[in-house]
Design brief:
Length: about 300
């Protein structure tokens, strides 16, 4: 199996407790890690995903309760799309309707059924019904049987003034290839990647630029198998596209570099290793606050200031 594709999506939310309820109870994701924003340790960094927090399933949030609402526009990730079994479209239509989610609509894209909606902070999400994934494992919850569980990311869509230069980086550096076109959207796919393998680039020339805030996606992370694979991507970015990344940053669960792609979206390249079980047993993921070693001396102070999650 290829080790290309989406690693995770990181967004900005409002109140943390509401965020946990929406993603664990309503959508049935597993809270796989409770840590803090390493650059702002007074705020949570919450990770949701499948049972193991596998690359391609991870949606993370910086919950800043006082954040102003963002405004979607060019230069932003527009929508994060999860996979569900085709037979589960009815279950999720009923569940989301009963929950009163905002702007729930049903449509067809590239021949597949999509349920689009927003979370309580305005982030754009979708569930896409896929055939043939019924036997894939799904994280179960009290309200969502295994057969209807989300199966990781299908895709993300980016709104760009012009998508050509971004597409070149997806193809040359990040392991994707152009797969299809529909209207003003060009689909790129990581061959051999079942989960998190699609990026849709939507060209919206002349559209208002986005404004980061509550409900916005902060950055999009792509997979690198290990440090060597990441270094090769960094080399290609510099030599073939004239783009420099940050230095590598240790995020405890992966090691990352960051850069602005030509359409102004913040991209990250994150290693698959070491994963989320590096500091707590797999069966206990997300149960206790985990801090990087440099913040451990401040644990008592940090815990006293973090908002309650339940």
């Amino acid at each position: 199996m290829s080790q290309f594709g989406i690693h995770h999506v990181t967004a900005i939310s409002g109140e943390a407790r509401r965020n946990v309820d929406f993603y664990t109870r309503l959508l049935g994701l597993r809270l796989v890690k409770k840590t803090v924003n390493f650059d702002d340790p007074g705020a949570w960094h919450l990770y949701y995903g499948d049972e193991a927090g596998s690359p391609g399933t991870i949606l993370t949030f910086f919950p800043w309760a006082q954040a102003a609402a963002g405004r979607l526009g060019a230069g932003e990730l527009q929508e994060t799309v999860f996979r569900i079994p085709q037979a589960s479209v009815g279950f999720w239509t009923h569940r989301l309707t009963a929950a009163g989610v905002a702007e729930l609509t049903r449509s067809e894209r590239f021949g597949e059924t999509v349920l689009s909606f927003r979370d309580e902070d305005g982030m754009r999400l979708a569930l896409l019904g896929m055939a043939g994934i019924e036997r894939e494992p799904g994280w179960t919850s009290a309200e969502i049987p295994a057969e209807h569980a989300l199966r990781g990311f299908h895709s993300v869509s980016l709104m760009l003034e012009d998508s050509a230069a971004t597409g070149a980086i997806l193809s040359d550096v990040l392991g994707f290839a152009e797969a299809a076109r529909e209207g003003n959207t060009t689909r790129f796919q990581a061959p051999g990647t079942a989960i998190g393998g699609i990026v849709d680039l939507r060209s919206v020339g002349g559209f208002l630029r986005g404004r980061m805030g509550r409900g916005s996606v902060h950055h999009l992370a792509f997979r690198a198998a290990d440090d060597a694979a990441e270094a090769e991507m960094v080399r290609k970015l510099a030599e073939n596209h004239g783009i420099a990344t940050t230095e590598q940053k240790d995020r405890n669960y992966f090691r990352s570099v960051y850069f602005r792609e030509p359409g102004h979206v913040l991209f990250e390249i994150a290693t698959d290793v070491p994963g989320f079980a590096v500091d707590e047993p797999a069966e206990q993921l997300g149960q206790t606050l985990k801090l990087p070693h440099f913040l451990e001396p401040q644990r008592a102070e940090i815990e006293s200031h973090l908002p309650a999650l339940a």
